[in-house]
Write a structure and sequence with these properties.
Dihydrofolate synthetase; 7-stranded mixed sheet; ATP binding; dihydrofolate synthase activity; ATP-binding; alpha/beta; magnesium; 19 helices
C-alpha cells in the first residue's frame, strides 16, 4: 500500500512533538513576547485610559440589531449631539465615506494615497488598529499615523467638553463614537482639504454617518457579505440596506462589488431614491487585469492594467498600464479599481487629480496586516529564517477565499503552513473550508490570542479544531491530528460531491499555545526537508493574531 508524503509527514512530526515535549527548550526572547498585549505610546496613557472607560464593542461584541436603522440600532442622535458640543467639526471639510463588508479599509487607503500624491492635505479615519489607536487617524500630506503628541494635545484641549458629553448622555457614549469625534475635530483643526472616512459597522447607524450631503463628496460601498449578520438584521438584504444608509442626496455612489443581483438592486434603488448617480467598478467598463507577479525589494507585487470606461450616470475614463500593486490578489485589484472610480468622481466634480497621482497613490499603498509580507530579516528574527511569512487579517468566508486565491496565484509550488486564531463570533467552518481547498496546504496550527486586549471574544484552539475537522469532511480533505494515536481516513459517505473532485490530500492539524507556535512551525518546516525558500507561512484568522506577531517584532 502506497503511503503519501503528507501521511509520512504527519507520523514523523508526531514523534518530533513527543520528544520535544519531554525536553526543556531554551526559547528565543521572541516567544516570551508573543502573548503580550498591545503597547501604546506612554504619551497617550491619559487618552487610552479615558477611552477604555467607555463601552468598547470591539472587545465585547456588537448587540443584535445594533447596526440597523431601527429601534434596536445605535443612537446616531447621540453622535450628533456630541458633534454639536464640539462645534460640528465634520461640517468643516469635504469627505468621501466608505462602507462595505470587506475591502473598505484597503479602498480608503488607496484613495487617501491618491489624494496625497496629488498634493492634498488628507484626513483618513479607519479601524481597527494593529499596534496603536494612532493608526486609525492620519492627517496632512504624509500617510503616517497621527503623532502621539498631536492626539494627546487635542484630547487635553477638549477633555472638558468630552466630559460634559459623557455626562449628558448618561455614560452611553462608546469608545468608537468618542474616537470618531476626536478624529473629526482634529481634521477640522488641521484645516484638511478632504477626509476619507471608513464606516465602522454597517452605515446607517454608524457614528461616522453624521457626515451630511452638504459636505459629502462621494460615498462608496465595497462589498456586501455575511459578517456581523445578527448586528445588521440577519440577512444579506438587511446588510445591504444598512450599508446603503451612507448614500446622501445628489452625491455620487461608487459600487465596488461584484454583488448578487438582488443586492445590487437594493443599493441602486437607494441611490435612485436619493437622486445619486451610480458608478460601478464591476460593470463591463472595468477591463482591469492582473498580468503577473514580480519581486520588488524582496517582496512580491502584482503588475496590473487598470482600465475603466464608465458610460452610465457619469462618463469617466482612465487607462493605467503596468501598475505595480503591493497589495496582492484579485480582491485588491478590485479595491484599487473602486478607489480609482472614487478619484474619478472627484475629478468630475472639479478636484485636480492627474492619472500620474492615481498611479503613484495605488503603487505606494501598503497596510499593516493586509497582504503584509515580512522582510527576510523579520522572518529570521522570529525564528523562521528563509521562509516567506505572510500576515493577513482575513476572518470571513469571503476574505478567506480571497486569501486562498492570492496564495495560489503568488506561490503556486510552495509548501504552505497556516497559523490561525479567530474571534468567537466568526464563521469558523466556512473560513476553514476556503483555505482547505488550497492545493499547497500541508499543515494548520491552531492557537488563541486575545481580541482587542480581552479574552471574552477569543476562541479556544480546541473549538477551532472541531470546526476545521467538520470543514475537512465537507471538502474531502483528510485531517491528521498531531498528538492522536492514529489518523483515520473519513468514511466515503461523509464526503460530498465537491470532495470527489478534489485530489486526495492529508493535512496535519496541530493545537498549540501561542507561545509555542513559531517553534512548532519551524519544526514542521525542517521536518518537511524542503528548501526553506519553498516554505510559506501564513498567519491569519484575525487582525489580532497579526498584531501579536508584529508587536513581538517591535519588542
Amino acid at each position: 500500500m502506497r503511503v503519501s508524503k503528507s501521511v509520512r509527514f504527519c507520523a514523523q512530526f508526531k514523534d518530533t512533538l513527543y520528544y520535544a515535549s519531554v525536553k526543556a527548550l531554551n526559547r528565543h526572547r521572541f516567544y516570551r513576547g508573543l502573548s503580550a498585549v498591545r503597547q501604546e505610546d506612554p504619551e497617550l496613557k491619559d487618552v487610552v485610559a479615558y477611552l477604555d472607560n467607555l463601552k468598547n464593542y470591539e472587545k465585547i461584541g456588537v448587540p443584535t440589531g445594533a447596526g440597523t436603522d431601527s429601534d434596536d440600532g445605535f443612537d446616531l442622535g447621540r453622535m450628533t449631539r456630541l458633534m454639536q458640543l464640539l462645534g460640528n467639526p465634520h461640517s468643516k471639510f469635504q469627505a468621501v465615506h466608505v462602507a462595505g463588508t470587506k475591502g473598505k479599509g484597503s479602498t480608503a487607503a488607496f484613495l487617501s494615497n491618491i489624494l496625497r500624491a496629488q498634493g492634498y492635505s488628507v484626513g483618513c479615519y479607519t479601524s481597527p488598529h494593529i499596534h496603536s489607536i494612532r493608526e486609525r487617524i492620519s492627517v496632512g500630506r504624509p500617510s503616517e499615523p497621527v503623532t502621539a503628541k498631536s492626539l494627546n494635545l487635542l484630547f487635553q484641549r477638549i477633555k472638558m467638553t468630552l466630559d460634559q458629553a459623557v455626562e449628558n448622555e448618561d455614560k452611553r457614549i462608546s469608545h468608537f463614537e468618542m474616537l470618531t469625534a476626536m478624529a473629526f475635530k482634529l481634521f477640522a483643526d488641521e484645516n484638511i482639504d478632504i477626509a476619507v472616512v471608513e464606516a465602522g459597522l454597517g452605515g446607517a447607524r454608524d457614528a461616522t454617518n453624521v457626515l451630511s450631503s452638504s459636505t459629502l463628496a462621494v460615498s462608496a460601498i465595497t462589498t456586501i457579505g455575511e459578517e456581523h449578520m445578527a448586528a445588521l438584521g440577519g440577512s444579506l438584504e438587511s446588510i445591504a440596506i444598512a450599508k446603503s444608509g451612507i448614500v446622501k442626496r445628489n452625491r455620487p455612489l461608487v459600487l465596488g462589488g461584484p454583488y448578487l443581483p438582488e443586492i445590487e438592486s437594493i443599493l441602486r434603488a437607494k441611490a435612485s431614491s436619493m437622486g445619486s448617480p451610480v458608478v460601478s467598478a464591476s460593470d463591463s467598463g472595468n477591463k482591469s487585469v492582473i498580468k503577473g507577479i514580480s519581486d520588488v525589494c524582496g517582496k512580491p507585487c502584482q503588475t496590473c492594467d487598470i482600465v475603466l470606461e464608465i458610460e452610465n450616470d457619469l462618463k469617466l475614463f482612465i487607462q493605467l498600464f503596468n501598475v505595480n500593486l503591493r497589495m496582492l490578489g484579485p480582491h485588491q485589484l478590485q479595491n484599487a479599481a473602486t478607489a480609482t472610480c472614487a478619484a474619478l468622481c472627484l475629478r468630475h466634480q472639479g478636484w485636480s487629480i492627474s492619472d500620474g497621482a492615481i498611479r503613484t497613490g495605488l503603487e505606494h499603498t501598503e497596510l499593516l496586516g493586509r497582504s503584509h509580507f515580512l522582510t527576510s530579516e523579520e522572518a529570521e528574527a522570529i525564528g523562521l529564517a528563509g521562509a516567506k511569512i505572510l500576515l493577513d487579517g482575513a476572518h470571513t468566508k469571503e476574505s478567506a477565499k480571497s486569501l486562498a486565491d492570492t496564495i495560489q496565484m503568488t506561490f503556486p509550488k510552495a509548501c504552505l503552513v497556516l497559523v490561525v486564531a479567530m474571534a468567537s463570533d466568526k464563521d469558523h467552518v466556512s473560513f476553514a473550508k476556503e483555505l482547505l481547498l488550497v492545493r499547497q496546504l500541508e499543515a494548520v496550527v491552531l492557537t488563541k490570542v486575545s481580541i482587542a486586549g480581552d479574552n471574552s471574544r477569543s476562541t479556544p484552539s480546541s473549538l477551532l479544531k472541531d470546526s476545521w475537522i467538520l470543514a475537512s469532511k465537507d471538502v474531502g480533505v483528510e485531517i491528521c491530528e498531531i498528538g492522536l494515536a492514529k489518523c483515520s481516513p473519513f468514511p466515503k459517505n461523509q464526503v460530498d460531491s465537491t470532495a470527489k473532485k478534489q485530489e486526495h490530500r492529508t493535512i496535519a492539524l496541530v493545537e498549540s499555545s501561542y507561545e509555542d507556535t513559531v517553534r512548532i512551525v519551524n519544526q514542521m518546516l525542517r521536518r518537511r526537508g524542503r528548501n526553506q525558500a519553498d516554505n510559506v507561512v501564513v498567519v491569519t484568522g484575525s487582525l489580532h493574531i497579526v498584531s501579536s506577531v508584529l508587536g513581538s517584532l517591535q519588542r
